[in-house]
Design a protein that fits this description.
Layout lengths: L12 E4 L4 E4 L12 H6 L3 E3 L5 H6 L3 E2 L10
Parallel strand pairs: 2-4
Antiparallel strand pairs: 1-2, 1-3
The chain binds zinc ion.
Length: 74
């Protein structure tokens, strides 16, 4: 689920700056030990990409979340 307010402002792809992983909020998995987006935001580890694409996240060396994207590139 996309979040309209700061720090993600309705963007689709959100990076975890701590683990260098990227999540797809349109396919967010909310089970325990899955995406943990709220926890990432609360910890101050959330960032977005410009443009808001998976390709841009990969260009910035972020790896895919195994739950919402899959196919780890590392
Ligand atoms: Zn995820």
């Amino acid at each position: 689920m996309r979040r309209q307010g700061p720090p993600t402002y309705g963007k689709r792809f959100v990076g975890n700056t701590d683990k260098k992983e990227v999540h797809d909020l349109d396919n967010e998995k909310t089970g325990p030990n899955e995406c943990q987006i709220n926890e990432i935001i609360r910890a101050g580890h959330a960032r977005t990409f410009t443009p808001d694409t998976l390709e841009q996240a990969h260009r910035e060396t972020y790896d895919n979340c195994a739950h919402c994207i899959g196919g780890s590139i590392r």
